[in-house]
Amino acid sequence: DQARQRLIEALQHYRAMGVTLNTAFVCRVLTHPDFAGGTLTTHFIEHHQTDLSRPDFTGQEKQQLSWLAWYQTNRTDTG
Hints:
The protein is mainly α. It has 6 helices and no strands. The chain has one domain (2-74). It has helices spanning 2-13, 23-31, 33-36, 44-47, 49-53, 59-74.
């Protein structure tokens, strides 16, 4: 369990620019109670697709998305 927790922490702090990564998905897999409890099968992702596919935004990401939405709504074109 210690290795799983360390991997979760590392993935949560990993940043890469210019590429799309699946670190949030992997974190959701690693933190899922069935995965953490060791009760998984080869159909784990299929059986938990709803839990695993939802977006999991951090507080900073929510703030950035909120700002972008405000900007798009309130910006004025200059030309």
